[in-house]
UniProtKB/TrEMBL annotation:
Portion held of the full protein: 701 to 967 of 967
The keyword Coiled coil is annotated on this UniProt entry: yes
Name under which the protein is recorded: Bifunctional diguanylate cyclase/phosphodiesterase
KW Coiled coil (keyword) present: yes
Keywords: Coiled coil
GO molecular function: cyclic-guanylate-specific phosphodiesterase activity
Domain EAL as annotated: residue spans: 24-267
Origin species: Pseudomarimonas arenosa
Amino acid sequence: RAKRAGRQRFEIFDAATNQHAIQVLDMEADIRHGIADRRFHPWFQPIVRMVDRGLVGYEALMRWNHETRGWLAPAAFLDVAEENGSIEAIDWQVWESACRQVQRLPDALYVTINVSARYFRKDDFDQRLLSMIRGTGIAPSRIRIEITEGALMHNPESVITMLARLRAESVQAAVDDFGTGYSSLSYVHRFPLRSLKIDRSFVSELGQQGDAGSRAVIRSILTLAHSLGLEAVAEGVETELQAEALIAMGCGLGQGYLFAKPAPLAE
Ligand code: C2E
Ligand code: MG
Ligand code: MG
Ligand code: MG
């Protein structure tokens, strides 16, 4: 009986594993088709001066216009795409489309693109990015890259070199989800950066009971940003209360559902 129960358990586990493997394979094939059909596109979310809601730029966020499932956010496919490397093809498709669409915006506005750690291991990333940007006919200064804290710390020396090369060509960088990493505080001054994006997790606690910790973290990030001469952008601002608290603490720029959700540029 014990043996039998054991085998049954094993079979159940096995079936679940199989099911998962099949789902991943389906997703991989789906992604390949999506890339071939150019179904990955940037949506745009405004970055604003919070006091007057003046637009300063947009973050380009990828969406998959899936044949049967409609528009999908990264959570639905990013893990699989990163795991099998297809994220590279997707990223270049999304970035190029974002750059083309910049042409339709007033000159003063910039667009940020999300760049993952893997690109900083490739010595020709800056050249490839610049030739793509130039190919779309826009000034490189209108594109900024967003990299996470983790990516900065992955191989600091080569990241510093790459960021310096990009900056020499007027492509500036922001640190995404700032405050969630572990070691960046002691390192951040070494990187040639333009801005720090305060992670949504701190912003979302503002105005709630027991938000003293988040306030303290946000204040420290703002102090750090200001003393290093960097811009600070609050991510995930959803309420007036949060916007007011951020403005009162000296954070001028924000992004979040309070101002607008990501959408196709035309919207
Ligand atoms: P992220 O770069 O930190 O982007 C911010 C995420 O927060 C976006 O999710 C955005 O839609 C969401 N968001 C913005 N405002 C609010 C708000 O007020 N409340 C809440 N709850 N969420 C808000 P999204 O678009 O699903 O993207 C998720 C992540 O996927 C991004 O996080 C980024 O790490 C990655 N990603 C997005 N686009 C690209 C891309 O083109 N390439 C790569 N490699 N990664 C990308
Ligand atoms: Mg981002
Ligand atoms: Mg972020
Ligand atoms: Mg993120």
